[in-house]
Design the sequence.
């Protein structure tokens, strides 16, 4: 099969969400020609769904806030496993990256004095999230997409990369197919940035769209890069639970940031019972204190325990449901109607109001929402250099959700959008710089034709399994056996299941032509999802303790000896193997900052 | 659970027809769920765009019984039992395949809008704006680019003037820049010429279909038309400009 279309760019960016767009802009500013490839239409990447805001210590609402406090919150939220250099760069640079968006046309909600307003979120000491109601991601992606277009990024929409091409151990480009036509296209590049986002589609109950299949993780792994922290998959505490068709759809943490309370089926505000030792004294100890904080007295009172980190809140909800104190549809109640006026709720949480009204028939200005955990975010991913976002494969970079290191064992809400722009920018600068001294490699035609033949194989088969059925089976397996609470036995079963499905993938058949054929797309995605699933399961088996988002029923406590150890995945003689690596120790002054505060 | 039958457009370009599919229906299902079930059970090659499934990304726009809708926000329970549900691609655009429309012209239209250009910073850390000053612009920035307003606009739908008229979506985008209090770019020449704002005769169809409830006509198009009129047709201002130029 011929590859009729070829493109050449200094830097190829794979993924057109926040990180990819920001990387493209940075690389163009640094003088590179940039190709930007995205699976969806421009502006529809998963960034658009981000709701609550982006964390940056601007200090607008509380002058005491600064990068040190943000750094400390991130490190503590990550349960010992964050890379301190990434956490510091993130905390230091986020304010400039956020202000820059305003210079490019973003319009964030304002505080009284005319500066950007900042909203409280889980795990952040101070109100820190720049936001636009509950549609911050939309504001961010629109701003970045228009800026990237005007800066001259060469944009390829609805185009899916399925193979990185290596020549002499160095990345030389990527092979992709156009979704609308099914035609293949070769992108040659001097350097390549992966900004492919998350992998939550592999679970049944998820806030993630079809796109979040973990492409970058699998592309990088296949190219010889290392993965890290893959066991840490964030289950956001509040997804919709009813009706069944919307189970998993995100309910922003902003609801709790604006004063929403969690209650169980008995009407008890249960989060007061779940404050971990590490955060004792940081949260309100009575409903009265929490109410005073919500009403605005934030210096004399501590924040409500609903604003504990996401791992803590998600596990608390699961515990309440398992103890028989759940809501009718197996979640708990989240209610903001008793703390805020209908006008306030509609102004601050318009899309939540709309979403519950339209999809569940619930008016959140008068009634409680039913919520439960939903697969949301991958803390782990491709292992990168903390300064440059370079992977261990020459010429290959990774930034945003696809990269590992910043969030450790648990990500704080609001730290994702800021991650995208901080490390997107860093990756763009570094990739453009490396591209200056790199050349285009000649790509052997045989490698391309073999890749194309592999990708089109299921069209030649008859009577095999339907890829949609296989995908649903994988998602159910991950939900049941690799969910919030894990055991050695279930994980071993999941591993066998994944190997079996890998075998069945080779027997699937696809009907119809190559033009916009979702059955074929799903089959191609499945290869990626199985790689991701295997990496998550192997890492979860390796971490024999409970920490952050990773909970082992058979090892319910944290093990101090694993507190500074990351699980790393790499390919060895065609097999996926795990290894462990010590987390780099921060210098003494930062260690003191983490332990004792500012 | 109950069964329902759907008529779904299948085919590419002008070469297509409605196909009938019957599936089981669960509580709370939306049209997009039904399309996905048809895909999984009957027609794996049935093409449809979607992403967020929560009304936030604007990918899944189609026509349901002839009305432009986000299929992810259209509940099956809104249709009477026994009422047939027909799903077709957006009519104002060429069809790529099945329910997927070719919206590439819209992206070209967007790229033609003169970009955002801010005044110098008010302070080292940026600009000072009051919340009430930015609310009009924020209303425009709610646009999820679903193209339903483009689909319903008769200038585009009936007359196909995609190349001469940027359409309501991009008038909203332009207004989002121009109503930003710190923006200083004058887009009136663009709007008058290649933007083709004169094609709009304010029938308000766009406003009616907007899933984000943006008052497209009143708050975006009319103020932009006023700017164009002020700039090009106000005799007093034209005189002032003439004098200033001298």
Sequence:
């Amino acid at each position: 099969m011929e590859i009729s279309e070829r493109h050449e760019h200094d830097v190829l960016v794979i993924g057109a969400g926040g990180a990819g767009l920001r990387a493209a802009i940075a690389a163009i500013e640094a003088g590179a020609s940039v190709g930007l490839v995205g699976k969806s239409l421009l502006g529809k990447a998963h960034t658009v769904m981000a709701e609550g805001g982006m964390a940056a210590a601007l200090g607008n609402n509380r002058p005491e806030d600064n990068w040190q406090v943000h750094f400390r919150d991130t490190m503590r939220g990550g349960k010992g496993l964050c890379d301190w250099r990434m956490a510091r760069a993130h905390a230091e640079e986020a304010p400039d990256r956020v202000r820059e968006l305003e210079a490019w046309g973003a319009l964030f909600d304002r505080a009284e004095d005319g500066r950007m307003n900042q909203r409280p979120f889980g795990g952040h000491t101070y109100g820190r999230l720049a936001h636009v109601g509950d549609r911050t991601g939309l504001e961010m992606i629109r701003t970045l997409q228009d800026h990237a277009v005007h800066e001259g990024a060469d944009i390829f929409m609805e185009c899916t990369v399925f193979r990185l091409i290596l020549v002499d151990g160095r990345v030389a480009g990527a092979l992709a197919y156009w979704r609308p036509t099914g035609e293949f296209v070769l992108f040659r590049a001097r350097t390549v940035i992966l900004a492919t986002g998350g992998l939550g589609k592999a679970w049944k109950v998820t806030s993630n769209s079809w796109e979040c299949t973990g492409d970058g993780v699998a592309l990088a792994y296949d190219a010889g890069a290392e993965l890290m922290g893959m066991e840490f998959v964030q289950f956001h505490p509040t997804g919709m639970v009813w009706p069944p068709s919307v189970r998993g759809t995100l309910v922003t943490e902003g609801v709790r940031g604006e004063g929403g309370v969690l209650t169980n089926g008995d009407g008890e505000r249960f989060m007061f019972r779940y404050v971990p030792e590490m955060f004792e004294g940081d949260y309100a100890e009575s409903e009265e204190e929490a109410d005073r904080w919500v009403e605005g007295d934030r210096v004399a009172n501590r924040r409500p325990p609903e604003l504990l980190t996401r791992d803590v809140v998600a596990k608390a909800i699961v515990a309440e449901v398992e103890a028989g104190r759940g809501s009718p549809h197996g979640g708990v109640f989240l209610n903001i109607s008793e703390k805020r006026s209908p006008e306030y709720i509609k102004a601050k949480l318009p899309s939540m109001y709309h979403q519950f009204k339209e999809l569940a028939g619930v008016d959140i200005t008068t009634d409680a929402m039913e919520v439960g955990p939903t697969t949301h975010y991958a803390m782990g991913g491709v292992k990168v250099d903390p300064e440059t976002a370079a992977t261990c494969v020459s010429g290959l970079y990774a930034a945003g959700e696809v990269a590992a290191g910043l969030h450790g064992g648990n990500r704080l809400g609001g730290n994702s959008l800021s991650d995208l722009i901080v490390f997107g920018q860093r990756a763009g600068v570094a990739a453009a710089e490396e591209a200056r001294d790199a050349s285009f490699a000649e790509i052997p035609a045989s490698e391309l034709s073999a890749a194309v033949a592999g990708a089109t194989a299921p069209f030649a088969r008859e009577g095999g399994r339907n890829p949609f059925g296989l995908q649903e089976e994988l998602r159910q397996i991950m939900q049941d056996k690799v969910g919030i609470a894990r055991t050695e036995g279930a994980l071993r079963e999941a591993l066998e299941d994944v190997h079996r499905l890998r075998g069945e993938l080779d027997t699937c058949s696809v009907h119809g032509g190559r033009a916009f054929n979702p059955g074929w797309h799903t089959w191609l995605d499945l290869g990626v999802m199985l790689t991701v699933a295997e990496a998550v399961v192997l890492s979860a088996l390796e971490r024999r303790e409970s920490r952050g988002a990773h909970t082992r029923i058979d090892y319910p406590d944290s093990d101090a000896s694993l507190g500074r150890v990351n699980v790393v995945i790499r390919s060895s003689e065609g097999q996926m193997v795990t290894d462990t690596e010590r987390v780099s120790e921060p210098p003494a002054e930062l260690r003191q900052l983490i332990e004792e505060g500012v | 659970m109950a069964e329902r039958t759907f008529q779904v457009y299948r085919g590419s370009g002008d070469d297509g027809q409605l196909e009938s599919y019957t599936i089981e229906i669960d509580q709370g299902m939306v049209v997009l769920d039904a399309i996905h079930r048809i895909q999984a059970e009957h027609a794996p090659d049935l093409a449809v765009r979607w992403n967020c499934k929560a009304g936030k990304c604007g990918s899944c726009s189609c026509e349901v019984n002839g009305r432009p809708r986000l299929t992810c926000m259209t509940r099956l329970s809104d249709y009477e039992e026994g009422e047939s549900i027909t799903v077709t691609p957006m009519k104002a655009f060429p069809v790529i395949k099945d329910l997927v429309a070719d919206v590439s012209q819209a992206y070209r239209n967007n790229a033609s809008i003169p970009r955002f250009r801010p005044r110098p910073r008010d302070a080292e850390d940026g600009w000072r704006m009051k919340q009430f000053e930015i609310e009009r612009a924020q209303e425009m920035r709610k646009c999820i680019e679903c193209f339903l307003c483009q689909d319903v606009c008769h200038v585009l739908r009936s007359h196909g003037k995609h190349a001469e008229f940027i359409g309501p979506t991009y008038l909203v985008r332009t207004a989002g820049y121009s109503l930003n209090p710190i923006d200083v770019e004058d887009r009136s020449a663009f709007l008058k010429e290649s933007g083709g704002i004169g094609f709009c005769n304010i029938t308000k169809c766009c406003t009616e279909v907007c899933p984000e409830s943006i008052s497209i006509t009143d708050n975006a198009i009319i103020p932009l038309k006023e700017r164009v009129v002020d700039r090009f047709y106000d005799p007093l201002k034209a005189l002032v400009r003439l004098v200033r130029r001298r």
Q: What stands out?
A: The two ends of chain B are 78 Å apart (CA to CA). The first strand of chain B starts at residue 3 and ends at 12.
